[in-house]
């Protein structure tokens, strides 16, 4: 999807999440999708190419990340996909005025434990506003010292673990990282407890 000449690196988590979207492409047309921490935006681009109404976002404090979102859209012939500055943990006018959402995407947003609480503040806010929405996220297990599950329990959020083999993402070239320390990639679908997943 992306050309290395643009100096963009696609992390393995984004490839795995994009693979999940591709595996579920028939359910995407017409769905309203928000990608958070989008950066290069591979999952969002795939969702848009599959017919979803996509909104890409990254931190308003990171103009280069927002520019990466725009560049990815242009390279993939998606000039009309909106790009929005949303900073995790901050209830901004942009966050408050978001249109309804069905699916939130986040690949490798659980990178730095100091951001986890801010991310979940934002996700919880979006799920409360869109009670039937789901947060589809992939992350690399970088340390045995932190657990997303404990935080989800604290926020009273439901999580379903999605095995990578169930959507063909357990292939060596997809889910394994050539980066030092080769990390395990996990996928989860997070929702409000009362959501019936429809």
TrEMBL record:
Gene3D superfamilies: Vaccinia Virus protein VP39. The gene is Mettl23. It comes from Struthidea cinerea. It catalyses: L-arginyl-[protein] + 2 S-adenosyl-L-methionine = N(omega),N(omega)-dimethyl-L-arginyl-[protein] + 2 S-adenosyl-L-homocysteine + 2 H(+). Interacts with HSPA5, HSP90B1, TUBULIN, UGGT1 and UGGT2. Interacts with TET3. Interacts with STPG4. Pfam families: Methyltransf_16 (PF10294). Keywords: Chromatin regulator, Cytoplasm, Developmental protein, Methyltransferase, Nucleus, S-adenosyl-L-methionine, Transferase. It is found in: Cytoplasm; Nucleus. GO terms for biological process: chromatin organization; methylation; regulation of gene expression. GO terms for cellular component: cytoplasm; nucleus. One of its GO terms (molecular function) is protein-arginine omega-N asymmetric methyltransferase activity. Belongs to the methyltransferase superfamily. METTL23 family. It comes from the Eukaryota. Histone methyltransferase that dimethylates histone H3 at 'Arg-17', forming asymmetric dimethylarginine (H3R17me2a), leading to activate transcription via chromatin remodeling. Maternal factor involved in epigenetic chromatin reprogramming of the paternal genome in the zygote: mediates H3R17me2a, promoting histone H3.3 incorporation in the male pronucleus, leading to TET3 recruitment and subsequent DNA demethylation. SUPFAM superfamilies: S-adenosyl-L-methionine-dependent methyltransferases. This is Histone-arginine methyltransferase METTL23.
């Amino acid at each position: 999807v992306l050309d290395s000449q643009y100096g963009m690196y696609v992390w393995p988590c984004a490839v795995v999440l994009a693979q999940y979207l591709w595996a579920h492409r028939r359910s995407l047309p017409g769905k309203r999708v928000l990608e958070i921490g989008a950066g290069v935006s591979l999952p969002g681009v795939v969702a848009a190419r599959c017919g979803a109404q996509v909104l890409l976002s990254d931190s308003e404090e990171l103009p280069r990340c927002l520019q990466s979102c725009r560049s990815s859209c242009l390279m993939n012939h998606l000039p009309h996909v909106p790009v929005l500055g949303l900073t995790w943990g901050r209830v901004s006018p942009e966050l408050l005025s978001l249109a309804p959402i069905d699916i939130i995407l986040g690949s490798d947003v659980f990178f730095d434990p100091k951001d986890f609480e801010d991310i979940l503040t934002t996700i919880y806010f979006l799920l409360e506003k869109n009670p039937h929405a789901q947060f589809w996220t992939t992350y690399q297990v970088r340390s045995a010292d932190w657990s997303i599950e404990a935080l989800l329990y604290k926020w009273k959020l439901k999580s379903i673990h999605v095995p990578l083999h169930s959507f063909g993402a357990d292939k060596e070239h997809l889910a394994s990282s050539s980066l030092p320390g080769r990390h395990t990639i996990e996928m989860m679908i997070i929702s409000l407890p009362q959501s019936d997943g429809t």
